[in-house]
Amino acid sequence: MTESDSSNFIVADDHPLFREALIHAIHNCVPGAVIHEADSLASLYEVVEANPDADLLFLDLHMPGVSGFSALAYMRNNHESLPTVIVSAVDDPAVISRAIQHGASGFIPKSSPIRKIEAAINAILQGEVWLPENIDLGAGGLDNEEARIAAAMSALTPHQFRVLMMLGEGLLNKQIAYQLGVSEATIKAHVTAILRKMQVTNRTQAVLAVQRLNTREPGLVE
Amino acid sequence: MTESDSSNFIVADDHPLFREALIHAIHNCVPGAVIHEADSLASLYEVVEANPDADLLFLDLHMPGVSGFSALAYMRNNHESLPTVIVSAVDDPAVISRAIQHGASGFIPKSSPIRKIEAAINAILQGEVWLPENIDLGAGGLDNEEARIAAAMSALTPHQFRVLMMLGEGLLNKQIAYQLGVSEATIKAHVTAILRKMQVTNRTQAVLAVQRLNTREPGLVE
DNA sequence: ATACTGATTCGACTTTTGGCTAATGGTATC
DNA sequence: GATACCATTAGCCAAAAGTCGAATCAGTAT
Predict the structure, then answer these.
(1) What is the pLDDT of residues B2-43, one digit of tens each?
(2) B203 beta carbon < 7 A from strand D?
(3) Looking at the structure, do residues A74 and A31 belong to the same domain, yes or no?
(4) Are residues B21 and B111 in the same domain?
(5) Number of domains composing chain B
(6) Domain containing A37: what range?
(7) What is the DSSP letter of A5?
(8) pTM for this prediction
(9) Which CATH number goes with the domain that contains A191?
(10) Whose CB has fewer CB within 10 Å in chain A, the N or C terminal residue?
């Protein structure tokens, strides 16, 4: 009866087909597994809140509402006890390396054959950090800036994080307020708190900071 | 006496050491070559204006004031007659492919040995499009968005482009005005024109558009 | 010579942003 | 129960952002 008896997983990916495939693989590894799905930042919030005892989160790097390592950085500090595995179409060693440094418990390229994915799931359930073969973790280091931004971002509250992601879409305070069903005054208060925590002076700079956590080529920033 | 008798080149790169090495290689290929240098967007403007009859521009992808393909997109439309070769530390096939699609006349990785660089210069002077070996030009296509943004950006006037790049650094109108030595009202007018041409409604969205021309992993944008 | 186009400049005006204070209620934690 | 933090809102204010119309200037076509 109690869910703590069985394994609880969360699969966050906006591609239904891949979600299904991943769930299938998980079931093969853990027959009685209970799996919860999310296809956006908003639904990820709901599912994570509703299942605080989940054992593992499979997180896509790109979903509606979040992009890059932002969501990972956030999860690492607001739900420390929930290990997070990145599942992504990207398989650049530098991106993989950065994901691990941002606190991911593993990295599964979407291009992996089913067997490999199942092997990855099993390894991670054993507490291992699973990576594709031949990955040099020294490939892409986090520069100081990136680490600082990730730390600042993980200090944000859930609402603040959500608002920050919407700033990242170029929305007005008024639009954000409408979409979240609160007053504009509330959004302003959130934005002020965000700017403070991110140590920037206006929303454009905040958005630029978020962009640095995207999976762009490392080594280009002077 | 007339400069049109000799070959005119422009080398735009913010790394003095590499600039020197490249100039040396050019001299080896074209003994009497006249070479003009730029180490920032501002100086690139000056040099290009001062030498409208230049034969070839060597352009680094990352200089103070510009980043990614923005400068290339701009050059392609405002100085159509000046062929541009990208010189970059990046050698990702997708980046190379995108550079060519943005109108570059060649791509020289900085990691190339001197001989290769000289071979590249000779080939490009013959009118060829020079690429590193084994490059699959199908590697990274421009999505519609990226092509649209590049087109919009190349419709900007020099001043507007300059202002847009400064928006991309998170600067205030006031700061931009001070740096360019004009009134804040002028900058506001430029910004309004930029927003119109880029088909966005505020500066944050304009900055996000510019970011799409950076050399980040392609294929990640949903 | 005239007219037209486009770039640059700027002031006046409106809207949006962002900071500050203050108040309310909820929810943990101690 | 007290304390702390979060979310919410209002109201006020100063600063910044953005729009419009207008003047100037250069180049270009007629």
Answers:
(1) 344 568 899 999 888 789 889 989 998 999 899 999 998 888
(2) yes
(3) yes
(4) yes
(5) 2
(6) 3-125
(7) G
(8) 0.85
(9) 1.10.10.10
(10) N
Note whether B170 contacts A219, CB cutoff 8 Å.
Answer: no
Q: What single-letter DSSP state applies at residue A53?
A: T
Nucleotides of C strand lying within 7 Å of any protein CB atom: 6-12, 16-22
CB-based contacts of A204: which residues, under 8 Å, 6+ apart?
Answer: B167, B170, B203, B204, B207
Which comes out higher in pLDDT, residue B4 or B67?
B67
Instruction: Say what the pLDDT of residue B10 is.
Output: 94
Closest CA in chain A for residue B218: A216
Q: Report if residue A136 sits inside a domain.
A: no
Asked if A34 and A121 sit in the same domain, the reply is yes
Percent of chain B at pLDDT > 70 equals 90
CB contact under 8 A, B62 and A211: no
Under 8 Å CB-to-CB from B55, ≥6 apart: which residues? B7, B8, B9, B82, B83, B125
Residue B136 lies in a domain: no
Model pLDDT for residues A92-139, shown as the tens digit of each residue: 888 898 999 898 999 998 888 888 888 999 998 888 888 887 676 666
Same-domain pairing of B120 and B149: no
Distance CA A131, CA A206 (A): 32
pLDDT band at A221 (very low <50, low <70, confident <90, very high): very low
Residues of A with CB under 8 A from a CB of B: 14, 61-62, 64, 67, 89-90, 92, 95, 167-170, 172, 200, 202-205, 207-208, 211, 214-217, 219-220, 222
Whole-number Å distance between alpha carbons of A42 and A65: 8
